[in-house]
């Protein structure tokens, strides 16, 4: 394996000069630098990034904690974060926690041991205290740590109002709002959308039923079973508000139950990922703009890593995506 000493010998310079030229730290005469770079290219020299980062007390790696990649929202979030962080000079380590009993704690321990420079958490399962005790840089997506950790989220209240307006416009009389059990608690902020929907519809005299789904399973079989259970339990509902995969499950199960969509059952999803446009009929959605969420998360994280103390939470706009289900 070629070392920087080999490069220095071929270029006819000292080890320190070669190191400065290839790292960009310190002055090297242009003609000398060119000779060193040519020698490095000829020898196919690759710098030891780990060693360089250790000298800077930095790994150049950001940990991303998510429940799973099986959910369309989180897989797209990771894709956008990887792109945004790469442009800032960081690589990513994706950590899926839902299938590991102690996965979230293990990854937080790794952060404390300085193997990553910072972490973006989009998980909902672990206790807040472990995050609050951490001395490392953490940014949260959609989870409220009481102002102690910066948070980025969508405008969930606006999302709930938007969905409510479309249900009202279509003449719905009884709407099912179904979301994760963990969002029933105030610290998981997406529940705001469902509570706002309920308040808006009930103010207009429209009945709202609420049901909840376990957040430790993310496969379509689980969603389909839940949709079928709800359609049996609430036979006279004429509207459903749910996340993308669950909304899709209601679409298929609704057809199986003989429901005409959207005539007898109107469906609005909340997330609006590509999944909602790959089914027929296409699902009408309130869209969380994942690209903008990712940019905000990246911006806050990098500013905190650079030492900025006061960083405000960010709320990103939502938008309507018309489909054929409402």
What does this structure look like?
The protein contains twelve helices and twelve strands. The chain has 326 residues and is of the alpha/beta class. It has three domains: 4-47, lambda repressor-like DNA-binding domains (434 Repressor (Amino-terminal Domain)); 61-152 and 291-315, Rossmann fold, CATH 3.40.50.2300; 156-289, 3-Layer(aba) Sandwich (Rossmann fold). The strands form two sheets. Strands 2-1-3-4-5-11 form a six-stranded parallel beta sheet, with helices on both faces. It has a six-stranded mixed beta sheet with strand order 7-6-8-9-10-12, with helices on both faces. The longest helix has 16 residues, at 72-87.
CATH architecture of the largest domain: 3-Layer(aba) Sandwich
Total domain units: 3
Strand content: 15-25%
Quaternary state, please?
single chain
Q: State the share of residues found in helices, binned by percent.
A: 40-55%
Low-pLDDT residue intervals, each spanning 5 or more residues: none
SSE pattern, N- to C-terminal: HHHHEHEHEHEEHEHEHEHEEHEE
Sum up the overall morphology in one term.
Answer: elongated
Number of helices: 12
- Sheet with most strands: 6 strands, parallel
Q: Supply the CATH class of the largest domain.
A: Alpha Beta
Sequence of strands across the biggest β-sheet = 2-1-3-4-5-11
According to CATH, the homologous superfamily of the largest domain is: Response regulator
- Write down how many β-strands occur, each being a DSSP E stretch of 2 or more residues: 12
Cα Rg:
25 Å
CATH topology annotation of the largest domain: Rossmann fold
Average pLDDT confidence is 90
Structural class: alpha/beta
Measured distance between first and last alpha carbons: 62 Å
């Amino acid at each position: 394996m070629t070392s920087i000493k080999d490069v220095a010998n071929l270029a006819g310079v000292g080890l320190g000069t070669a190191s400065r030229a290839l790292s960009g730290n310190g002055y090297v005469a242009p003609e000398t630098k060119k000779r060193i770079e040519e020698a490095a290219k000829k020898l196919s020299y690759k710098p030891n990034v780990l060693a360089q980062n250790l000298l800077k007390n930095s790994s150049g790696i950001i940990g991303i904690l998510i429940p799973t990649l099986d959910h369309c929202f989180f897989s797209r979030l990771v894709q956008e974060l990887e792109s945004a962080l790469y442009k800032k000079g960081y690589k990513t380590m994706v950590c899926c926690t839902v299938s590991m009993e102690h996965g979230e704690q293990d990854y937080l321990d790794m952060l404390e041991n300085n193997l990553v420079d910072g972490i973006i958490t989009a998980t909902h399962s672990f206790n807040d205290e472990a995050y609050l005790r951490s001395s490392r840089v953490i940014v949260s997506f959609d989870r409220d740590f009481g102002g102690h950790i910066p948070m980025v989220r969508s405008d969930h209240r606006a999302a709930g109002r938007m969905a409510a307006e479309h249900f009202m416009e279509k003449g719905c009389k009884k709407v099912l709002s179904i979301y994760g059990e963990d969002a029933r608690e105030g610290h998981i902020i997406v529940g705001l959308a469902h509570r706002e929907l309920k308040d808006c519809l009930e103010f207009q005299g429209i009945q709202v039923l609420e049901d909840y789904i376990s957040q430790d399973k993310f496969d379509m079989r689980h969603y389909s079973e839940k949709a079928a259970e709800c359609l049996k339990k609430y036979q006279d509902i004429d509207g459903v508000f749910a996340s993308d995969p669950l909304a899709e499950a209601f679409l298929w199960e609704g057809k199986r139950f003989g429901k005409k969509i959207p005539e007898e059952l109107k469906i609005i999803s909340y997330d609006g990922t590509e999944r909602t446009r790959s089914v027929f009929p296409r699902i009408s959605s309130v869209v969380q703009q994942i690209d903008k969420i990712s940019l905000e998360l990246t911006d806050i994280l990098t500013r905190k890593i650079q030492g900025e103390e006061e960083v405000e939470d960010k709320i990103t706009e939502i938008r309507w995506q018309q489909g054929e289900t409402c």
